[in-house]
From TrEMBL, chain A:
<feature type="transmembrane region" description="Helical">
    <location>
        <begin position="152"/>
        <end position="179"/>
    </location>
</feature>
<feature type="domain" description="ABC transmembrane type-2">
    <location>
        <begin position="41"/>
        <end position="268"/>
    </location>
</feature>
<comment type="similarity">
    <text>Belongs to the ABC-2 integral membrane protein family.</text>
</comment>
<keyword id="KW-1003">Cell membrane</keyword>
<dbReference type="GO" id="GO:0043190">
    <property type="term" value="C:ATP-binding cassette (ABC) transporter complex"/>
</dbReference>
<feature type="transmembrane region" description="Helical">
    <location>
        <begin position="186"/>
        <end position="205"/>
    </location>
</feature>
<keyword id="KW-0812">Transmembrane</keyword>
<dbReference type="InterPro" id="IPR000412">
    <property type="entry name" value="ABC_2_transport"/>
</dbReference>
<protein>
    <recommendedName>
        <fullName>Transport permease protein</fullName>
    </recommendedName>
</protein>
<dbReference type="Pfam" id="PF01061">
    <property type="entry name" value="ABC2_membrane"/>
</dbReference>
<keyword id="KW-1133">Transmembrane helix</keyword>
<feature type="transmembrane region" description="Helical">
    <location>
        <begin position="72"/>
        <end position="91"/>
    </location>
</feature>
<feature type="transmembrane region" description="Helical">
    <location>
        <begin position="43"/>
        <end position="66"/>
    </location>
</feature>
<dbReference type="InterPro" id="IPR013525">
    <property type="entry name" value="ABC2_TM"/>
</dbReference>
<keyword id="KW-0813">Transport</keyword>
<dbReference type="InterPro" id="IPR047817">
    <property type="entry name" value="ABC2_TM_bact-type"/>
</dbReference>
<keyword id="KW-0472">Membrane</keyword>
């Protein structure tokens, strides 16, 4: 009976003035930040994976691939940034799948809010992850002797490019998160798609030693185009064409998958 | 097991007799009554008008018509239950009313807003607590409420104030700073309902609010629902527990295979099935066939049995006929552990309506876990 009586004393509250779409999106962004606080394991993953990849490739394979570890680092570092950003998008998709499984999105959908606000929140989480990775990797690189020849401006441009890549790739996992009910399946499905894309590219090695048919694939692989542009931006000598080619995939993915996301979301 | 079931039937009978339903209308309304008929009790606590009015709602998934043309009228301030077995279409119906799923056919207004034309306005007037706790498990209880308060448009301090009020009202102040993944099932359910009350909703949808809860937590949730209704919130709940509908709801709609097969107060439904039910519990379950045969011959009515077979239920019609039947059983040397006369239990009504002669295994199982 205590619940009943205390509930009857609960103040009746009327609806406050409707918040803006931006306000809704920022609340979901705040949620993404809280996730970092409450799920530190995720942060560990986020920090350790790129560090391990950088060290492994530089010191274990670097000498064999490029003559010396330091020379290889100069080649490899922009590539590992692209790889990390592409892989990092998996967290959003898994989070989305978890939220749907738990019925959390049903609550969001029954609220009078901007329909796309929850996705804006996911994007905030994504961008934070990309920024963390994009800070750690060049820092390790600098310690190991990497020098961005294009200077600070080049690095800033590279950050902007990475954010655009992350934004575009993010939709892939968001769509998978909407379609697949179990978070681990989202991860497996995503990586099945991303692994060949990342390894059959120019991230790790110069494709000139690959068989001709593979070279043809690597050349048009969007991940190669992104890596080439990023190398140019950080190392100097990027052409406008490089940058535009690198942006084709993110722009196309957004154009196709953003409306698809909305459709899938509203249909459920 | 026999004893345990005996208790269940005993308590069902008590409610059937009507002792716990003092505020409900006692008129002998016909079954399948489709017209809205506001209760005196509900009318006193709510303004006039309907909270929900739906006509011909239908929704198909592939070739399955999950909801097959349902009309519903729920007066403001009432607790209204939608009762039905698993797969009857309860959740689909509720999801449509809560704007989560678009109806294929039909129309509805919720608190005066058109469901299809103005879903955003409907969302502003409702709240829904789904079957599974729709909370962010990684966040604390308080953070969950603050998040939702901000989405409703409360600013920093107001959002925190409202969250703390709700935590206190639901007895969760102590657990406010704990992550929801560490909450018990009952605590989650309380927080989930609290999350639906940030802005006092016109209509609160509760989809199977006590499924999976232990008996104590279930009683808590029932008290909560009564408290909310007393504060003027219209509540539409789905349940597969007959006892829950009987205990809480002023009106019950029974649905099966996507169609409404009956509607009325718990009394209406029982009265329509007929009063003058004789319930007997046998001391020796092995003699049930003999006893059932005797009763059938004497009363000319079919006898239904509990799943374990130790109890028999039969329409006796009059007290005198019941007396004679009992005398005949005793004369035949069939010892009775218990007997009573009264209205059918809601369970019997349900099975009569859904044309299932015996409780399905599933409902029996649910009942078994409760006793």
């Amino acid at each position: 009976m205590t619940e009943a009586t205390s509930l009857m004393r609960l103040r009746r509250v009327a609806r406050p003035p409707a918040p803006s779409a931006l306000s809704n999106a920022l609340v979901f962004g705040w949620r993404a930040v809280l996730k970092f606080k409450h799920v530190p394991e995720q942060l560990f993953d986020l920090v350790m994976t790129p560090i391990m990849f950088t060290l492994l490739f530089t010191f274990v394979f670097g000498g064999a691939l490029a003559g010396s570890p330091s020379e290889y680092l100069q080649f490899f570092l922009p590539g590992i940034l692209v790889q990390t950003v592409v892989f990092n998008s998996v967290y959003s998709g898994m989070g989305l799948s978890t939220d749907f499984g738990k019925g959390l999105f049903d609550r969001f959908r029954s609220l009078p809010i901007w329909s796309l606000a929850p996705f804006a929140g996911l994007m905030v989480g994504d961008i934070l992850r990309h920024l963390i990775a994009a800070t750690i990797i060049p820092t390790i690189g600098l310690i190991l002797g990497y020098r961005p020849e294009a200077g600070v401006l080049g690095v800033v441009a590279a950050f902007a490019m990475l954010t655009a890549i992350g934004f575009g790739m993010g939709w892939v996992f968001i769509v998978l998160g909407l379609l697949i009910r179990t978070p681990t399946t989202v991860m497996t499905a995503g990586f099945t798609f991303l692994f060949p894309l990342v390894f059959a590219s120019n991230i790790m090695v110069d494709p000139s030693t690959m068989p001709g048919w593979l070279q043809a694939i690597v050349e048009i692989n969007p991940v190669s185009l992104m890596t080439t542009a990023l190398r140019g931006l950080m190392g100097g000598g990027a052409s406008a064409a490089d940058v535009l080619l690198a942006l084709i995939a993110p722009v196309a993915l957004t154009a196709v998958l953003a409306p698809m996301t909305l459709w899938l979301y509203l249909r459920r | 097991m026999v004893l345990a079931t005996g208790r269940t039937v005993g308590s069902a009978l008590k409610t059937a007799i009507g002792a716990s339903l003092p505020v409900r209308r006692s008129s002998n309304a016909a079954m399948n009554e489709m017209l809205p008929s506001p209760q005196p009790a509900a009318a006193s606590s709510a303004p006039e008008g309907l909270a929900i009015s739906a006509r011909g709602l239908a929704k198909s998934f592939g070739t399955v018509r999950a909801v097959d043309g349902i009309d519903l009228d729920v007066p403001r301030g009432m607790i209204f239950a939608i009762l039905g077995p698993n797969g009857a279409g309860k959740t689909t119906l509720m999801r449509m009313l809560a704007t989560l799923s678009q109806p294929d056919e039909g129309s509805a207004t919720i608190m005066g807003h058109d469901l299809v034309a103005a879903p955003h306005a409907v969302r502003g007037a409702i709240a829904m607590t789904g079957q599974f706790a729709s909370l962010d498990e990684d966040l604390t209880g308080r953070e969950n409420l603050v998040l939702l308060s901000r989405l409703w448009g409360f600013r920093g301090r107001e959002a925190k104030k409202r969250s703390d009020e709700l935590l206190a009202a639901f007895g969760l102040s102590g657990a406010a700073g704990k992550q929801v993944k560490d909450y018990s099932g009952g605590m989650r359910r309380r927080l989930d309902i609290a999350a639906s009350l940030i802005v006092t909703p016109g209509v609160l949808f509760l989809d199977e609010p006590t499924t999976g809860l232990d008996p104590n937590a279930r009683k808590d949730v029932w008290n909560m629902i009564r408290g909310l209704a007393a504060s003027g919130v219209t509540i539409l709940l789905t349940t597969q527990y007959l006892e829950e509908a009987d205990q809480l709801a002023a009106r019950i709609a029974v649905i099966d295979h996507g169609r409404k097969i009956a509607e009325g107060t718990s009394r209406d439904l029982k009265a329509a099935t007929g009063s003058g039910f004789l319930h007997v519990a046998l001391a020796d379950p092995d003699r049930r066939d003999e006893a059932a045969h005797l009763l059938e011959t004497l009363l000319g009515q079919s006898v239904s049995r509990s799943a374990e077979g130790a109890e028999l239920h039969v329409m006796a019609g009059t007290a005198q006929a019941a007396n004679e039947a009992l005398a005949a059983l005793i004369a035949a040397g069939i010892e009775l552990a218990d007997f009573s006369m009264g209205q059918p239990s809601l369970e019997q009504v349900f099975f009569a309506l859904t044309d299932r002669p015996r409780p399905s295994a599933e409902l029996q199982e649910k009942k078994g876990t409760r006793t």
